[in-house]
Structure formats: structure tokens, C-alpha cells
């Protein structure tokens, strides 16, 4: 049995290649890292990697993580500047016994010492988005905090090993040095090959309040199906935030157990995810929540064409 699941339509091309690799017997660890790296490399995805949206200072600070479900080893970077493929740096850090979570200048120095490639990650198109968003929000006295789509990918290989990897440029116009849930083990990701894995996307400040990914895996270990675990965690966290904090941001998750069964949950209208397995053909699903349960259906050609047109559309200056 093999399987792979990812947050957002932007993961489709990377998942497609890694699904073929998993079907051919390749390891989950390299498959998820390669799939995330493919998203990082595509300049039109403005919330991940090359072309990611900048902080309020105009810098692109990237976060990424990797976790091996066999050993529970993990590596993560935060606020990494101008290094290509942060997920590969996180993967390398997972092989370190200590110092496996590095941020800022320390993360950059370690990456360069290890031979990772320096690359300017801010693109002109990202700056056009930045200026447009400023006009739409700051110039009108509105909050700029929008646009926070993390790519998170879970893989299960034919040997029964599981891995998870994440990557994001984080909250748009975030403060310099801000970290969300994506590089934080237990919140943005968690993986245990004896149980399953989960990964999250949305408002990191709220997702971290529920240790979201760990809690989903824990509930799967207690006997819940992936869908039950995902729905119950997202619903309960939103209810708790609303009752005790007064508001709840976007909360979306995907998960998979060691048998290749998957689940997804969200509290927003337009959450998409990609999944493929030995029994599930490669499919992009569109998910939304009705009452306390998430419902999802495969997207159609019209949806796919609209998505492609949207990410390629010229930006009005």
C-alpha cells in the first residue's frame, strides 16, 4: 500500500510525480520532500518558496519542516532568507541529533555551510502583489493579514514508512521574525508510521492553540478514522476559540493513516487538497464544511481552468 495527500491545488504537479515514485517503491521521505520542493520552485504560487509574499519589511522569510514517521526525527527552519528549497534544508536538519530547528540568520548560515544554494526568493510579481495588497488594505486602514496557504504533504510508502513535509512564506505582511505553525512539530505537522500523519494550513496563531496535527494523530491512534479525527479536531478547536478567545481564523487539515485511508477538514469555503493512493486515482478535491462535517467533491475542468487563469492573470498596478 502507498499513498500521498497534500494541502491545496498548488501541490498537484509535485504530488503527481511523487505518486509515481511511491508506486514504484520509492521512499516516503524523499517523495514528500521532492513534492514540496516542486511547489517551492514554481514562481506563481505566492504563499510558498520562490515568489512567496514578503514581510512588512519587504523580505521573504520562509518556513519549512520535515518529519520521519519511523524515527520521529524532525528538522525545521524558520525565517530563512534567500536559500532555495527550505524544505531540503529542513530534511537535512532532521538528520542532526541536536540543533534540528534553526531560525533566522543561524538557519541561513547553516544552510550555506552545508552547500545549499543561495537564491533571491523575492520576485517582481510578488512585489506587484505586495503593492496591490497594500493599496487594498493598509491604504484603506484595513488589516493586511491575509494569504497564508501552507503546502503540507504526507507520504506512505510500500514499506509502511510515513513522512510529512511543509513549506510556507507565512502570513502576508507578517512582522519580521514571526513564526506560524508550519515549522512547529505537533501544530503544523506530525507523523508516526505506526499510526499516521497530519498537516495543517491556515492561521498559525490559532492552529498552534490546539496542537492540531498531533491531536489528529493521537485520535487516530485511539481508533478514530482519519476523517473523524480531522473533523472533530477542527470543529472542537474552532468552538473553543470562539467561546474563549472570541474569534477563530482559517483552520484546514489533511491526514492519512498507516493503511492509506485519508481525511480532510476545514472551517472555510474554498479549501482544496490533492490525494492519490493505490486505491484512489490522483484527484483534486474541493472541500467545505456543512455543520460539523467536512464534505468534499472532485473538482471539474471548469474549476481547474479558472484556477490556472487566476494564478497567471496579470496584476493590475
TrEMBL record:
Coiled coil: none
EC annotation from Swiss-Prot or TrEMBL: 3.5.1.26
Site keyed Cleavage: positions: 149-150
Stored Gene3D superfamilies: (Glycosyl)asparaginase (3.60.20.30)
Catalytic residue list: 150
Cited Pfam families: Asparaginase_2
CDD domains, sorted: Glycosylasparaginase
GO cellular component: cytoplasm
Spans through the membrane: none
Positions bound to substrate: 178-181, 201-204
Top-level class of the enzyme under EC nomenclature: hydrolase
Keyword Oxidoreductase: no
GO molecular function, one term: N4-(beta-N-acetylglucosaminyl)-L-asparaginase activity
Protein's UniProt keywords contain Coiled coil: no
Keywords: Hydrolase
Protein name per UniProt: N(4)-(Beta-N-acetylglucosaminyl)-L-asparaginase
Amino acid at each position: 500500500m502507498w499513498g500521498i495527500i497534500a494541502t491545496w491545488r498548488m501541490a498537484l504537479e509535485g504530488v503527481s510525480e511523487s505518486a509515481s515514485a511511491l508506486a514504484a517503491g520509492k521512499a516516503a521521505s524523499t517523495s514528500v520532500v521532492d513534492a514540496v520542493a516542486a511547489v517551492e520552485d514554481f514562481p506563481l504560487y505566492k504563499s510558498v518558496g520562490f515568489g512567496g509574499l514578503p514581510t512588512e519589511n519587504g523580505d521573504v522569510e520562509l518556513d519549512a519542516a520535515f518529519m520521519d514517521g519511523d524515527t520521529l526525527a524532525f528538522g525545521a527552519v524558520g525565517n530563512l532568507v534567500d536559500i532555495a528549497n527550505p524544505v531540503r534544508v529542513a530534511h537535512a536538519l532532521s538528520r542532526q541529533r541536536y540543533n534540528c530547528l534553526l531560525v533566522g540568520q543561524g538557519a541561513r548560515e547553516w544552510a550555506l555551510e552545508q552547500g545549499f544554494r543561495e537564491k533571491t526568493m523575492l520576485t517582481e510579481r510578488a512585489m506587484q502583489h505586495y503593492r496591490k495588497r497594500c493599496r487594498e488594505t493598509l491604504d484603506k486602514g484595513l488589516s493586511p493579514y491575509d494569504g497564508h496557504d501552507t503546502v503540507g504533504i504526507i507520504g506512505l510508502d510500500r514499506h509502511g514508512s510515513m513522512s510529512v513535509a511543509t513549506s510556507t512564506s507565512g502570513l502576508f505582511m507578517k512582522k519580521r521574525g514571526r513564526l506560524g505553525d508550519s515549522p512547529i512539530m505537533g501544530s503544523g505537522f506530525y507523523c508516526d508510521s505506526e499510526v499516521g500523519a497530519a498537516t495543517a494550513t491556515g492561521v498559525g496563531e490559532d492552529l498552534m492553540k490546539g496542537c492540531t496535527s498531533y491531536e489528529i494523530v493521537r485520535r487516530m491512534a485511539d481508533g478514530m478514522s482519519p476523517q473523524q479525527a480531522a473533523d472533530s479536531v477542527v470543529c472542537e478547536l474552532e468552538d473553543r476559540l470562539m467561546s474563549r478567545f472570541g474569534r477563530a481564523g482559517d483552520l484546514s487539515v489533511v491526514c492519512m493513516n498507516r493503511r492509506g485511508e485519508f481525511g480532510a477538514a476545514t472551517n472555510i469555503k474554498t479549501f482544496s487538497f490533492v490525494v492519490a493512493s493505490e486505491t484512489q486515482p490522483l484527484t483534486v478535491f474541493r472541500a467545505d464544511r456543512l455543520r460539523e462535517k467536512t464534505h468534499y467533491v472532485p473538482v471539474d475542468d471548469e474549476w481547474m481552468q479558472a484556477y490556472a487563469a487566476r494564478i497567471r492573470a496579470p496584476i493590475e498596478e
